[in-house]
Specification:
Blueprint lengths: L3 E7 L28 H10 L11 E9 L2 E6 L5 H21 L8 E6 L6 H13 L4 E4 L8 H9 L3 E5 L11 E5 L1 H15 L4 E7 L5 H14 L5 E8 L6 H11 L3 E6 L2 H9 L9 E5 L3 H8 L5 E4 L2 H14 L13 E4 L2 E3 L17
Parallel strand pairs: 3-4, 3-5, 5-6, 6-7, 7-13, 8-9, 8-10, 10-11, 11-12
Antiparallel strand pairs: 1-2, 12-14
């Protein structure tokens, strides 16, 4: 069937981060779901959205070609967890908004599938999923890579089949193969965490890094940023650096580190899974460690409220998901017709502690709501 092309342009807000402003809507719990606009529901949602709530990045006009009936395939690093569910909700809302703005109905609607492993370490499942998805020949592929080196063959296959690739959250080593990237400035995540942890422990003492996979781009950049920040403090030393894919059992490895360094002053946990795992780890003795985590999960919010965690450097996953789909929609047309797609857009993280936990300005950075 011949694709229909409509004129549509999407105005992006660039790298400027504005807290709030995007309408939050629920998403399906299924691992794979075709997202199609319901005219009546979408109209009601649009009517309820005030002008103050609508940011420039969500405005959709009619200045550039977009292909009706396009299929966007999302292969996520994981499908479980509050962060990934928020990303999915942002993506689903973007598809609904695009279809509503263009007036696409029935076969003209842009659709989306969302697949991935049940945990971020299962790179093999992600690769198998990518193979299956590419064989179905979607219009655009959106990918968050669990291993920045492992998807090369799949990305090359996508390119050979004329499938544009948009990376989100975590990029790949050969980023020249990627048409666009949407995610957080992960180096800034690490730097902010380092500065906040240094302040919290009085700028001296031993610290440990508990990280997600070593070959995940987001984790690598966060660790690099953290080390750069800590290097400014001559009285702080990093005595341990653990990665989930380098140990048999991360929780046992964390417990072993805490026992080996009874004078440890602080820890940095690089993502939601590791942060929650650390909080669940049994701690012995009277020594209280200072913890700084990443991604404000419900568990971390409770820990901050109870004084167990100094604070968390958090992302806006809904925004990342929404913007990923907007980029993908712009790439649904043949390459020679693509215009105005910003290749890389990075969003700044936010610092959440007891003073900002209940501040509405930071609500977009709090997960599980």
């Amino acid at each position: 069937m011949m694709r229909k092309v409509a004129a549509a342009g999407i105005i992006l807000a660039g790298i400027i981060l504005v807290a709030g402003g995007l309408d939050r809507k629920g998403g399906s719990d299924n691992f794979v779901a075709d997202v199609q606009a319901n005219d009546e529901t979408t109209q009601t949602e649009e009517e309820n959205r005030s002008s103050e709530e609508t940011e420039p990045e969500t405005q959709i006009d009619t200045s550039a070609p977009v292909t009706a009936g396009s299929r966007i395939a999302v292969v996520s690093k994981s499908v479980d967890g509050e962060f990934w569910k928020a990303i999915r909700t942002g993506m689903e809302d973007a598809v609904k908004d695009v279809n509503a703005a263009y007036g696409y109905t029935s076969d003209d609607q842009i659709t989306m599938t969302f697949e991935g492993a049940s945990n971020e370490q299962d790179v093999e499942t992600q690769i198998n999923t990518l193979d299956a998805v590419i064989a179905e020949n979607p219009t655009v592929l959106c990918l968050s890579a669990g291993d920045e080196d492992s998807c090369q063959a799949q990305i090359e296959a996508a390119k050979e089949n004329g499938i544009a690739v948009v990376a989100f959250d975590s990029n790949v080593t050969d980023s020249d193969m990627i048409a666009a990237f949407r995610g957080t400035d992960n180096t800034s995540v690490g730097k902010l965490a380092g500065e906040k942890l240094a302040d919290a422990i009085g700028k001296s003492g031993k610290v440990a890094i508990f990280s997600a996979q070593e070959k995940t781009e987001s984790s690598r950049k966060r660790v690099e940023g953290f080390k750069e920040a800590i290097s400014a403090y001559s009285d702080i030393s990093i005595v341990q650096e653990l990665y989930m894919d380098k140990v048999e059992d991360m929780q046992d490895a964390i417990e072993s580190t805490l026992q080996s360094y009874p004078d440890l002053a602080g820890v940095f946990c690089t993502n939601a899974d590791v942060s929650d795992l650390y909080l669940d780890t049994e701690k012995t003795g009277d020594h209280v460690l200072t913890m700084v985590g990443v991604d404000a999960t419900s568990k971390q919010q409770e820990a901050i409220r109870n004084g167990v965690e100094a604070g968390v450097v958090s992302q806006d996953p809904y925004r990342i998901g929404y913007q990923t789909i907007l980029a993908a929609v712009q790439l649904t047309v043949p390459k020679e017709e693509v215009s105005g797609v910003e290749r890389t857009v990075l969003y700044d993280p936010a610092w959440i502690d007891s003073s900002s936990l209940d501040d509405p300005e930071y609500s977009d950075y709090l997960y599980g709501k």
